[in-house]
Design brief:
The chain is an alpha/beta fold and 196 residues long. It has 7 helices and 9 strands. The chain starts with 11 loop residues before the first strand and ends in a 10-residue tail after the last helix. Bound molecules: guanosine-5'-monophosphate. Guanosine-5'-monophosphate binds next to β5, β6 and α4.
Length: 196
Amino acid sequence: MSSEGFRRSGHLIIISGPSGSGKSTLWRRLVEHPWVTFSVSATTRAPRPGEQDGKDYFFLKEAEFEARMAQGEFLETAEVHGNHYGTLRRPVEQALANGLDVLLEIDVQGAGQIRASGLPTRSVFVMPPSMEVLEQRLRARRSESEAQVQRRLSIAAAEMAQSKDYDFLVINHEVESMVAEVMHFLGLSDSQEPVR
Ligand code: 5GP
């Protein structure tokens, strides 16, 4: 099929998975693709060392987050690990209108709201190989306290139980093969014609 005169329409690509599953690594690889852009979420959680406002997240005070929510500025919101997170509507709708796919790295609650929005969506859930590996990865990050690690582990099991609602499930045994599998599913592999 020739791509001449072909006007592609963008999709929302939802990437979910427990903290430490490797979904951020997948995200970084997908966003290198010329058809893919990403949405910077807003959150009320404190920045981790090295995180930048406007790049990793828009870090908002609770009152500002709530004000924006009341204005209808979010496509979806969720409370995760005691903090608020949300996807801003405007930049996402603009990118879709430009024919780009928009990556959303969001939790299972947000994914449900996006599916219900009626926007064109493909969802991918990233599984760690085991709970033991997940725990090792969370500890190796050294960015969270012991209590936070325990909290993330207990939420991980509940999140994984909802993976059945996703279009594609991938187990992160090894990064390169995970990336290749997901690219293929999304029709973003070099050798593939766009699946639109
Ligand atoms: P973290 O604090 O580790 O960056 O993210 C914690 C969780 O919040 C992750 O599961 C991540 O996918 C989720 N998250 C990040 N941004 C959003 C968002 O805009 N909406 C929703 N629903 N979840 C988000």
